[in-house]
Amino acid sequence: MTVDARVRVRYAETDQMGVAYYGNYFTWFEVGRVEWCKANGFNYRDMEHDDGVMLVVAEASCRYKAAARFDDELLIRTSVLRARRKLITFGYEVLKAGRDELLATGETTHLVTGKDLKPRALPEKYFAIFGL
Amino acid sequence: MTVDARVRVRYAETDQMGVAYYGNYFTWFEVGRVEWCKANGFNYRDMEHDDGVMLVVAEASCRYKAAARFDDELLIRTSVLRARRKLITFGYEVLKAGRDELLATGETTHLVTGKDLKPRALPEKYFAIFGL
Amino acid sequence: MTVDARVRVRYAETDQMGVAYYGNYFTWFEVGRVEWCKANGFNYRDMEHDDGVMLVVAEASCRYKAAARFDDELLIRTSVLRARRKLITFGYEVLKAGRDELLATGETTHLVTGKDLKPRALPEKYFAIFGL
Amino acid sequence: MTVDARVRVRYAETDQMGVAYYGNYFTWFEVGRVEWCKANGFNYRDMEHDDGVMLVVAEASCRYKAAARFDDELLIRTSVLRARRKLITFGYEVLKAGRDELLATGETTHLVTGKDLKPRALPEKYFAIFGL
Q1: In chain B, which ranges are continuous DSSP H helix?
Q2: Model pTM?
């Protein structure tokens, strides 16, 4: 399932090139992931708090195709590309809302860990959500 | 005692005006506070970790006099303006290194709390450091 | 006129205290200002781009009353407290959405400048909007 | 040539997991690039300002091996992996200073552009520096 989150580029997120700084896309990916969880029936916050499970980033990448500018409304289109019990990969497309112009694509791969940051398996109640 | 910390303005910290974004000064104040602690004989990290004491921000302010630009080296000149057992106020001057041009001044007031974010008194071993 | 903007606390905006880092409130104030402009009939982006007018921050302050946490939805309630042709002060309340719990209050004062960051007067077409 | 830059993890850069947020590594990579330029005889700032040349990020990636924590001093070990007249790839290692423990590795690939963000060739005076 693919889920769209919306963000609007903040002045704080621009740099002196006049466009959004490249590091901010990874924060927007996070916004996309959190929204993906909600649309799939659970809150990431509760997963951490109630189940003591964290999705720690092991790899992250982004390809930038066109610049995002201040006050642009963006869609962060998020899906799960691959999931195993201990490793989940999300994929992202960043689009300019309305025009559906593709600005960037990216991936993040997460280790499932406990609060101690040590690897563990995803609790069974999340299996169906991640297609396991 | 007044302590100088050094930061260099990062590209990420600029905005499309071509100057450092105003919110970043509060991060630089934090760098100044951490350095003030070190110069006064303790690590803020250890204070949190070993003593379970946190300095939670209750008020923060900044006056901006001149812009900081990408790659400028700044001095964050930090001192304690007022200290009581449960409330500490730091003062800051942000200067352009070398030229000693004053770019900004600011203050942050902190509640002394435990890890539960509830007010408590500063441990006695810190009294002399804060002039109590 | 008071205008509400909504933000959701991002994981990136939390710190190891488990709450939103104090510097981020100033970014949220910016989100509030941008929304205030839109609700009052103009885009801040166009003001910069079309009129060459910038609102450069001269002073900023925030009082923190209660912590904002990851995934909390916040209202940034923005109004103009004082306006002159060369100086505008915005006021902010940060509330937890739904519960209307007041988390913080703040102010930012802005110099009206040209693209060269030098003071100038606000263009006449904005007078009525700012009650001048 | 490999160049080491030093950063200290800021409180602002931690998140509620108690470690540095994954997006900040890309800002540290920027610190590494800027330092690489200096050690190789030019300022990135001057390149933008004097030559009108920008290095716009086209791709960025990071692999995270171990967490960086508040107040850790890090080395950002930067080198040029590949360079052509219109495309430059930097490589990075993030190490914990003193212990030389590898925390992360990464790459960023940059398009050479003018101030209009349109591709152009690198000015000839930089050829030798980038091994062209």
Answers
A1: 24-39, 44-51
A2: 0.98
